[in-house]
Design a protein that fits this description.
Blueprint: H1 16-35, E1 39-40, E2 46-48, H2 49-52, E3 66-68, E4 75-78, H3 83-91, E5 101-110, E6 122-131, H4 136-153, E7 158-164, H5 165-175, H6 179-190, H7 194-201, H8 208-216, E8 221-222, H9 225-231, H10 237-256, E9 262-265, E10 278-284, E11 292-296, E12 310-316, H11 317-326, E13 338-342, H12 348-359, E14 364-367, H13 373-382, E15 387-391, E16 400-405, E17 411-415, H14 416-424
Parallel strand pairs: 1-5, 7-9, 13-14, 13-15
Antiparallel strand pairs: 2-4, 3-4, 5-6, 6-12, 7-10, 8-9, 10-11, 11-12, 15-16, 16-17
Helix pairs in contact: 1-4, 4-10, 5-8, 5-10, 6-7
Length: about 425
């Protein structure tokens, strides 16, 4: 029998400290998006299944949590990916809105798979979608924002791998391997497995120059110099157009002064059949999985009968937190700002003081359990409360407040009237 205290596999309960860290990082990422002009939206936790049956970059179709709407009998699904919901929103409610649209979100998604490092069955995505622009400036804006997001979250040792899906697609369309072989070639290229790639290409007839270029892709990884190397290879016109697009994006990233964080990877083919242009992912040193991923997906919104170019990316909050933990860079968090401890029989002064402090934006908890001062201070320390403001204790004169800084251990006795007046005027009571 499963104990009543158990929770389902793949989900977590977060303590106040863990929740505070999550909210801190989430707020930093959303703040970056807001500064770039993106406006937050909220999408439903569940939808009709058809919304998530559109192909997406996550290949999540077999990971959907499904259930039946008892009113209509139709299949519903928990949100497995946010991008299709954004596409539906743009094609319906926002169809007449002027373009481009800059949309941001922070929401929980649900995937039915075995939990593993950096991933549960319930996890949070924080991302953006830029709708209605097909220019290299839009691609560069997304990548620059991903760099700024990593920095804002507190990551220092990170890189953004950038590729162009049309480079590989152009080569494969020119060579036309059998569908089963094509998918294996894409996988071998992305895994940078030269032995398997060579074996697979032996089964593909075609232009020897194109085949040699395909074999070279896994080695085309680095800075802008790889574009010079690629220019000497035998690419078909579609691939050359993609390389020219990538070169423009790199130039704009240099103008943004973020190119030092960017690594070009011409073998990048994540969600190859979904993305239609620039693709990228964020990696932190020492972790083997992406913290963020995204790219251009110009065909998805058209599946909702509204053809429109689009590019977006999303941070995986769990993985960002794991990277921060590995780098010992998790944000510091604390409990309420003040614990108000009152030993006076008349509680009116304590009530007024608590209200005034809260009006100043401070988080104030009142200690309303009967215990001695040492016990109340121990509680404050255990709750990560920075300061205790004490009224009516035996250790202080009448009509005073005792301010105890629990971080430094310093204590000051101040006149109650002056303390209250300072708070009421909006000045800092800690500087009296």
């Amino acid at each position: 029998m499963i104990p009543r205290t158990a929770i389902p596999k793949g989900v977590r309960v977060f303590t106040p400290e863990e929740t505070a860290r999550r909210r801190a990082v989430e707020g930093k990422l959303l703040s970056v998006f807001q500064r770039w002009g993106f406006r937050e939206i909220i999408t439903p936790t569940f939808e009709y299944l058809e919304v998530f049956e559109q192909p997406t970059g996550e290949d999540a179709g077999d990971q959907i949590f499904k259930f039946v709407d008892r009113q209509t009998g139709r299949l519903l699904a928990l949100r497995v990916d946010i991008t299709p919901q954004v596409a539906r929103l743009v094609a319906t409610t926002l169809r007449q809105a002027p373009l481009p649209l800059r949309l941001a979100y922070a929401a929980t998604v649900f995937r039915y798979h075995e939990p593993r490092a950096g991933r549960q069955r319930e996890f949070e995505q924080i991302g953006v979608e830029l709708i209605g622009l097909d220019r290299p400036e839009a691609d560069a804006e997304m990548i620059a924002m991903a760099v700024e997001g990593c920095q804002a979250a507190g990551l220092r040792a990170f890189q953004i791998d950038v590729g162009q899906a049309e480079v590989v697609r152009g080569l494969l369309n020119a060579l036309q391997p059998a569908p089963a072989v094509r998918s294996r070639i894409v996988s071998a290229i992305r895994r940078k497995d030269p032995l398997e790639l060579d074996l697979l290409l032996q089964e593909v007839p075609g232009d020897p120059g194109l085949l040699e270029t395909l074999r070279a892709l896994p080695q085309l990884y680095g800075g802008r110099e790889i574009l010079d190397q690629a220019a000497r290879l035998h690419f078909p016109p579609a691939s050359r157009a993609a390389l020219a697009n990538l070169a423009e994006v790199v130039t704009i990233l240099e103008n943004y002064e973020v190119a030092e964080h960017v690594i070009l990877d011409l073998a990048e083919g994540h969600a190859f059949e979904y993305y239609t242009g620039v693709v990228f992912g964020a990696f932190a040193r020492g972790l083997g999985y992406q913290l963020a991923s995204g790219g251009r997906y110009d065909h998805l919104i058209g599946q909702f009968d509204y053809p429109c170019p689009a590019i977006g990316f999303t941070f995986d909050l769990e993985r960002v937190l794991a990277a921060l933990a590995a780098a010992e860079s998790l944000p510091e968090v604390s409990g309420p700002d003040v614990l108000l401890i009152d030993f006076s029989p008349d509680k009116r002064a304590a009530h007024r003081l608590a209200r005034l402090l809260r009006d100043r934006g401070l988080a104030v908890a009142r200690d309303i359990i009967k215990r001695d001062l040492a016990g109340s201070l121990a509680y404050a320390k255990a709750s990560a409360i920075r300061r205790a403001v004490i009224l009516g204790s035996a250790e202080q004169p009448p009509e005073t407040v005792l301010v105890h800084d629990l971080v430094t251990g310093t204590r000051r006795t101040l006149p109650l009237g002056a303390f209250v007046q300072t708070v009421a005027q909006g000045d800092s009571p800690w500087e009296i």
